[in-house]
């Protein structure tokens, strides 16, 4: 029984609708057909990821790839990143940080907290495809169960 055959769900936390659409378009162009669950603020995303009780147990057994914008209306992406990487159920989920800044200190802080890849917006297709490949997830994310 391989439990890794479950498809990866992409959780996108991005408040700018234009960017969200662009990111989704780039994901599709990169050949990734996985489900994308979009959130436009941190509060709703945290409930999805950590459950109402905040324990994160709701994500045990989920295969997630998290796309995280740093500048959200209700909290900073850095706080969300720290919570994800500090949670037993979520810390192994890869996080791709999306941001409009190229401030090296902020980038370093994200890597220190455990971000896997950092992409500066506006996201272009090349940058996105490279990031997905860097994650080494490129092929694992797009695996589709064999149809008999």
SSE topology:
Elements: E1 9-13, H1 17-29, E2 36-39, H2 42-50, E3 64-69, H3 77-85, E4 95-99, H4 104-113, E5 117-120, H5 125-134, H6 138-142
Parallel strand pairs: 1-2, 1-3, 3-4, 4-5
What's the short story on this structure?
This protein has 6 helices and 5 strands. The chain has helices spanning 17-29, 42-50, 77-85, 104-113, 125-134, 138-142; strands spanning 9-13, 36-39, 64-69, 95-99, 117-120.
Keywords:
148 residues, 6 helices, Rossmann fold, 5-stranded parallel β-sheet, alpha/beta
What does this structure look like?
With 148 residues, the protein is of the alpha/beta class. It has a single domain, classed as Response regulator (Rossmann fold, 3-Layer(aba) Sandwich). Helix content is 38%, strand content 16%. The protein has six helices and five strands; from the N terminus they run E-H-E-H-E-H-E-H-E-H-H. A five-stranded parallel β-sheet has the order 2-1-3-4-5, with helices on both faces. Strand 1, helix 1 and strand 2 form a beta-alpha-beta unit. The longest helix is centred in the N-terminal third of the chain and has 13 residues. It is globular.
By DSSP, the count of extended strands is 5
Task: State the domain count.
Answer: 1
CATH architecture: 3-Layer(aba) Sandwich
Coarse shape: globular
N- to C-terminal separation?
Answer: 18 Å
CATH homologous superfamily designation: Response regulator
Roughly what percent helix?
A: 25-40%
CATH C-level class is Alpha Beta
The averaged pLDDT comes out at 86
Strand content: 15-25%
């Amino acid at each position: 029984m391989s439990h890794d055959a479950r498809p990866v769900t992409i959780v996108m936390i991005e408040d700018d609708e234009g960017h969200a659409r662009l990111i989704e378009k780039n994901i599709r162009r990169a050949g990734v057909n996985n489900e994308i669950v979009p959130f436009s603020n941190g509060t709703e995303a945290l409930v999805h990821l950590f459950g109402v009780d905040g324990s994160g147990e709701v994500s045990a057994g989920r295969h997630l790839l998290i796309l995280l914008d740093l500048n959200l209306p209700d909290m900073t992406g850095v706080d969300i990143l720290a919570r994800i990487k500090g949670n037993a159920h979520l810390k192994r989920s890869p996080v791709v940080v999306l941001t409009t800044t190229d401030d090296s200190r902020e980038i370093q802080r994200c890597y220190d907290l455990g971000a896997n890849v950092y992409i500066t917006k506006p996201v272009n297709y090349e940058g996105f495809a490279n990031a997905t490949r860097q994650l080494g997830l490129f092929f694992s994310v797009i695996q589709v169960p064999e149809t008999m």
